[in-house]
């Protein structure tokens, strides 16, 4: 089996998506027969699955969320999602082509058929379901409030849910909607880059930011003594991320669900999560497999 990881950088300009950078890497295996005809162990050809390019699974990602998805020191895609997608591509018998795009361009890109699916831990909200379809859940999330290191509280929702308080989040993310729902009286502002949203807090231009705990931990490791997790009585939310596909491609959704159920039941999800997130325990996942 030949596994091919290609990562392409794309940028949104006005309403169009233009190619900005193209990188490719190949490795593993001894021939291209399975990758070229899409007849791997998954049992369905890539044509049956409605892939845009026969023999290739094109995936939109935002590679800035270490350890879930990021570019390593060699500028290659790495992390939990990437490991899982490599396994998926092997199972399907196809090549993997990763398109690296700003977060807020992923759903529009999927709608305009720039890629077959999106892997960025999207929450399957009712609003998103109107325009794209989702697989079952593949990654757990705990949403928290990041505040300046010297913030002494009080750490209550009411203390941040008031006029004059600026709260940041990643633009277009479930964190942005969670911030708006949780802090309706505050000024919630979205940023196209996660680090930009956090930098607003670190430099004192905002009072807090809503995001997943593991993303905050990565930022703290690179920017010590700048931000901390607000010691709220409980997390802002606990949820799960799913893969997204083009609206109406139920065959691909079924293929992804089958793969994820197997990966959940045989311990693959837990193994990859522990490996990439550096934890001993894997949060409980939804049932139904």
Structure report:
The protein is α/β, with parallel strands linked by helices and 289 residues long. It is 30% helix and 33% strand. It is built from ten helices and 14 strands. It has helices spanning 33-37, 80-92, 106-111, 126-129, 157-160, 174-182, 194-202, 213-222, 250-265, 268-277, and strands at residues 3-13, 16-27, 56-61, 64-65, 69-71, 77-78, 95-101, 117-122, 132-148, 166-170, 187-191, 208-212, 227-229, 237-246. Strands 1, 2, 3, 7, 8, 9, 10, 11, 12, 13 and 14 form an eleven-stranded mixed beta sheet that branches. The chain has a three-stranded antiparallel beta sheet with strand order 4-5-6, with helices on one face. Strand 10, helix 6 and strand 11 (187-191) form a beta-alpha-beta unit. The model is unreliable at 10-43 (pLDDT under 50).
């Amino acid at each position: 089996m030949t596994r091919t990881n290609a990562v392409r950088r794309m940028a949104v300009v006005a309403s169009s998506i233009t190619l900005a950078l193209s990188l490719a890497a190949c490795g593993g295996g001894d021939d291209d027969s399975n990758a070229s005809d899409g007849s791997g162990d998954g049992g369905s050809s890539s044509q049956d699955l409605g892939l845009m390019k026969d023999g290739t699974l094109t995936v939109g990602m935002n590679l800035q969320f270490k350890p879930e998805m990021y570019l390593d020191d060699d500028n290659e895609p790495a992390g939990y999602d990437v490991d899982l997608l490599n396994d998926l591509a092997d199972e399907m018998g196809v090549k993997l082509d990763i398109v690296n795009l700003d977060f807020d361009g992923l759903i529009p890109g999927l709608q305009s058929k720039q890629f077959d699916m999106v892997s960025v831990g999207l929450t399957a909200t009712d609003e998103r379901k109107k325009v794209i379809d989702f697989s079952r859940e593949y990654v757990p999330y705990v949403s928290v409030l990041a505040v300046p290191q010297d913030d002494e509280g009080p750490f209550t929702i009411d203390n941040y849910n008031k006029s004059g308080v600026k709260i940041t989040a990643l633009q277009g993310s479930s964190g942005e909607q969670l911030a708006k729902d949780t802090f309706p009286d505050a000024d919630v502002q979205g940023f196209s880059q996660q680090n930009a949203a956090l930098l607003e807090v670190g430099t004192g231009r905002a009072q807090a930011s809503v995001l997943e705990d593991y993303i905050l931990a990565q930022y703290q490791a690179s920017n010590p003594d700048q931000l901390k997790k607000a010691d709220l009585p409980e997390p802002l939310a606990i949820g799960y991320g799913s893969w997204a596909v083009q609206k109406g491609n139920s065959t691909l959704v079924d293929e992804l669900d089958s793969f994820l159920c197997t990966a959940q039941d045989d311990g693959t999800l837990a193994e990859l999560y522990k490996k990439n997130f550096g934890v001993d325990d894997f949060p409980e996942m939804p049932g139904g497999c």
